[in-house]
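so i finally got all the pieces together for this one. its two components total, 907 residues if u count the protein bits. some of the lines might not be protein, just check the labels. i wanna see the whole assembly predicted at once instead of chain by chain like last time, that was a mess tbh
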Amino acid sequence: MDFTLKVWRQKNARSKGHFETYQVKNISPDSSFLEMMDILNEQLIHEGMDPVAVDRGCQSSGPVSFDHDCREGICGACSLYINGRAHGPDDEVTTCQLHMRKFHDGETITVEPWRSKGFPVIKDLVVDRKAFDKILQAGGFISVGTGGVPDGNTVLISHETAEESMDGAACIGCGACVATCKNGSAMLFVAARVSSLALLPQGRVEAAKRAKAMVAKMDELGFGSCTNTRACEMECPKHVTVSHIARLNREFLCAKFKD
Amino acid sequence: MAEKLISKIPEGPLSEKWTKHKSQLRVVNPGNKRKLEIIVIGTGLGGASAAASLGELGYNVKVFCISDSPRRAHSIAAQGGINSAKNYQNDNDSVYRLFYETIKGGDYRSREANVYRLAEVSGNIIDQCVAQGVPFAREYGGMLANRSFGGAQVSRTFYARGQTGQQLLLGAYAALNRQIAEGTVKSYPRHEMLDIVLINGEAKGIIARNLVTGEIERFGAHAVVLASGGYGNTYFLSTNAMNSNGSAAWQCYKKGAYFANPCFAQIHPTCIPVHGDQQSKLTLMSESLRNDGRIWVPKKKEDVMKLRNGEIGPNDIKEEDKDYYLERRYPAFGNLVPRDVASRAAKERCDAGFGVNKTGLAVFLDFRTAIERLGVDKIRERYGNLFQMYQKITDTDPYKEPMMIYPAIHYTMGGLWVDYNLQTTIPGLYAIGEANFSDHGGNRLGASALMQGLADGYFILPYTIGDYLATQFKNPKTDTNAPEFEEAEKAVKAKIDRLMSIKGHHTVDELHKKLGHIMWEYVGMARNEEGLKKAIVMIQELRKEFWSDVYVAGDKENFNQELEKAFRLADFLEIGELMARDALHRKESCGGHFREEMQTEDGETRRDDEHFMYVAAWEYKGADKEPELHKEPLVYENIKIATRNYKD
């Protein structure tokens, strides 16, 4: 398969970005999107893009930088906005699991980084998602230390509760929800964690405090508000649903009433 | 120099060793802990749990990872589960049984005392994770659920769907986040350790590259913990994450830490087959699938040909024409034989011409019997995310057609040599998790990597490192202006300049793929003397080619993934040679190390206990010099050495 790629190039957070157009040929339909990007990069290196690009006044020369790691849809590192959709045209996959068979031969594909105030661009398609770590540091944990805990079967948890908690815990922290949201809200990310822990007896104790602290941190870091468009749910590669947002709101309101 | 290999295994009966040892370890009082600094490299299960636990104890911890967040470490991708000798199923499991099966699974090449301790603390891990809010699978009555894994005759694997590694890592990452918030741990994401700094022969800091700005930075501490994972990506194609690498451990080796059993690499039997030349990595299908999936190839060659030509599908083959070769060869364990056994059996069938896809390098993993017995819903509940993953990658529906699978490089049992305290041969330098060598011998059992990472990080290292740090609290903070730091930084910068200035004709990936081909061909599933000798020469030549003709794009002062890859490949090109060397010297077959010259009549591994019942620990002797081999004899006081038998 052959494709025309319009790829966002940006040297660093301070510089202005722009699109560059490339052609890639003989791509196997069984290749993943990132394998196609690998091929593009090999091509760019071989074409000696550096001097040419610099001559043309291009600020960001060389191969295209993009975050990736496990390439099996679980680490949450890959983060491309493809043809206007987070993680591209397939549903419930990350970019690394998106395969070229989902595109038409000869198609023009636009590739951009996550665009959100909370995620500044580091280079090309790589963004800084440190804000997610900071939100979790604000309270996304159960305050137990190592050791001195009771036997795992001391507290029974129903099958359904464990499964529901797992639905939220499946979040991979990729940021597709933020990138998709017109408000740049991190509600689905925050809710997934708050809800997953609040469902479990171990996490109930700090549920209200956790909800307040994480929401406050999210606001502080410049993420927008939730207006229930449910776009996040549509694009979440792990099918985390807005029912977790409902549970977050419940925890948050209960906590506020108590104040 | 052999005196460096002192294993420090405590005296006394096996079941009392750890208890006794703990009582004799020195401890640091809380006030002094605050004066001590520890560097932790890596944030997978080992690194994250260690950093969090050390922070809780009051030490000042600096934790480094190469990804943008600690949560992305490759432990996240472990699917099937974690072993623990809880005996919740009342199937007569015990610490001893887990210990015994791990030693046997490792083909009698791991340390008795270490493995026993691992089994001993395995129960605490589950309790710890439950307390952290890990949503393990539960029975309808609310009790924790279990499933079976290869090499075990009981059901002791705890799991969270097919995402157990993710959930355990998120637990450890949460504990880490709590410490970061409290200020005991400082996190350095997107930082790569490029060298270890020794002062008076002891580990006192690192040189790291800030991967965003390209700056070279110095960090000092009283001790360094390496939790940087394995070196499976030496093969280019593996189930490891793209950025997983052996460089941190390799720098330690080059500064004097011995590297043990490098040739023990695990080849996992159930991975999605290679689709073609454009492939960048391989995807694992969890071993848990072998609980319900049955592995087969056709009995008749004509069916094989028809399958390859697309004339028939797998469901068109009659039941009596299917060869369930694992059930046939290993009736006692069937589809749940250990990984090395299952991988070799698949290779044997494919080599004999029964491979089922176009390349002839695939076998079927079939769920039809299980779906008939349990229904689609039950199978979906157990393996839903794995089936979805398979479907997305291959575009076929595993609920309707059997999966196609083939073995791939997955894990490395070898690693830095450590004593019972998990300390390397460099004082003050510790290695935990996959980065060390100690617990899995020649083959790791499924669901034991997670167990080891967390055992080391939560329950072992925080105790043993105190014994060293008790000698350190009087020492002031490490001065990063010391000449040793100066020198190490200069060397790192010179290496970067050298890499950037070559401007040759090959990309980093092209050379890495070449290395991968050599490794898979000659240091892969079957090895022999001639091939290994050839591999050593080929790797040396490739290394020369790399240093004279690689092209590293971009510049050193910025975010530059090509430079990162070049650094790692430079080390893989040395690691690969040591792996081949170790494989060449070990003239026996054991676990994942299969020497064709050493096999039984029916193609099973033939160990040579008389000559090779030892840990091979290699000492670096300088560039282009042969490393020196040291041997730590393996003593089995509690287990009767036997030929591994999974047949009856």
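Chain B is about 40% helix and 15% strand.
The mean pLDDT of chain B is 96.
anyway lmk what u think
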